[in-house]
Design goal:
Structural class: alpha+beta
Shape: elongated
Number of strands: 7
CATH architecture of the largest domain: 2-Layer Sandwich
Bound molecules: 3,4-dihydroxyphenylalanine
Distance between the termini: 70 Å
Helix content: 25-40%
Strand order of the largest sheet: 1-2-3-7-6-5-4
Length: about 350
């Protein structure tokens, strides 16, 4: 039995260099560990050897505990020399081969924000100011000031989300028109208003409940549909880096008169027909029109003296077109593998 204790001491000497402290404690000092078994054995030792066995076993235990203390001391010194990086995306105790690949963790701005910046840059160079929209608004700005009186059937076109106390999540950036007219008037007023919008609708590859729009407003004396057509065309050609053919189709919005759907020739297939344009050769991009006199009046602008145009373009849709993304929901589901490909 005493020989066996010598053998255990040898094992400890070997293990202390090759096993972790946790493993050593588990192997030797746990409830069913090697030493516990040896202590239980005392009752089987012959009476004349009992005291020596007990003494040797206790010495062995002390020896092991000292070695553990010694090893822990070494680790403490190592750790205190190590610089801690609180931004490290892993625990320093994680072994190197199990750490995530740091190169893959580089951050970058979201593709939607990258495209938004490009668009705002184009508008700024064209002479537009920028005013950010808001994410919660009221009935006046969402409807009344835009010529949708209470009970107007066109309110149904903008089914969005309401809070219990009667506020609304904007269904379009046109909610900013009244504020922009009041704040920036008297004309000339040239401003773009980017913002987040919300609609209570089922989602599919080209519809989301949350999306971005950029509203644009241009008001001055003598402004016509011709100015509108040229301004929007110029912006789209600069952004899509392509000469485009355009069409203006009739549409309906209570806040414009006349109301137009702005349509461009498909920048990918030159009107031959492809998946992006649904084989039609054309893409309906945005609503626009001449600002309704009632909207100008609500904004403190005299419609006898001034005219203006406005548009609301969807950022997600254009980003998807430009970057060849077939499902706009991908832009919001946070799938990092998808975002890395862009
Ligand atoms: N707000 C409209 C929408 O989201 C788009 C729109 C149409 C904006 C005409 C305008 C406009 O400024 O004049 O459906």
């Amino acid at each position: 039995m005493l020989n066996e204790l010598d053998k255990i001491k040898e094992d400890i000497q070997k293990d202390i260099t090759s096993l972790s402290i946790l493993q050593i404690k588990g192997k030797y000092l746990s409830k069913n560990g090697v030493l516990a078994v040896m202590f239980k054995n005392i009752k089987n030792i012959k009476a004349d050897q009992k005291s020596e066995y007990g003494k040797t076993l206790n010495e062995l235990k002390t020896y092991l505990e000292d070695r553990i203390d010694e090893e822990q001391g070494k680790i403490k010194i190592e750790n205190s020399n190590r610089k801690i990086d609180p931004t490290a995306p892993f625990d320093v105790n994680t072994s190197k081969d199990k750490r995530p690949h740091i190169l893959d963790l580089k951050g970058s701005s979201h593709p939607l924000m990258q495209e938004l910046e490009k668009m705002l840059d184009i508008f700024q160079r064209m002479g537009f100011d920028i005013l950010e929209s808001r994410q919660i608004d009221d009935d006046f700005h969402m409807f009344e000031s835009l010529n949708f009186p209470k009970g107007h059937p066109a309110r149904d076109m903008y089914d969005t989300f309401w809070t219990d106390d009667g506020f609304v999540l904007p269904a379009h950036t046109s909610t900013m028109q009244n504020r922009a007219l009041r704040r920036l008037g008297p004309p000339p007023i040239r401003v773009v208003l980017p913002g987040r919008c919300f609609r209570n609708e089922a989602t599919d590859a080209s519809h989301e409940h949350t999306f971005y729009q950029i509203e644009g407003i241009y008001v001055d004396e003598g402004i016509s549909m011709g100015h509108m057509q040229a301004t929007i065309k110029e912006y789209l050609e600069q952004y899509l880096e392509k000469d485009l053919e355009i069409k203006m189709q009739p549409a309906y919005f209570p806040f414009t008169e006349p109301d137009v759907e702005f349509v461009i020739s498909c920048p990918f297939c030159n009107k031959v027909g492809c998946t992006t344009c649904g084989n039609s050769g054309w893409i309906e991009l945005m609503g626009c029109g001449m600002i309704h006199p009632n909207v100008l009046t609500a904004g403190g602008i005299d419609p006898q003296k001034y005219t203006g145009f406005a548009w609301g373009v969807g950022l997600d849709r254009l980003t998807a077109i430009k970057r060849g993304i077939s499902d706009i929901r991908k832009l919001r589901d946070g799938d990092i593998n998808f975002l890395r490909q862009l």
